[in-house]
Amino acid sequence: MTRASISAVAALTLLSATAATGQDNASRRTFSSGYRFVEMTGEELFANVCQGCHMPDATGATGAGTYPSLAGNKTLEAGSYPIFLIVNGRRGMPAFGDMMNDGQVAAVVNYVRTHFGNDFQDAVTAKDVQDARH
Question: Residue 73 maps to which CATH number?
Answer without folding.
Answer: 1.10.760.10
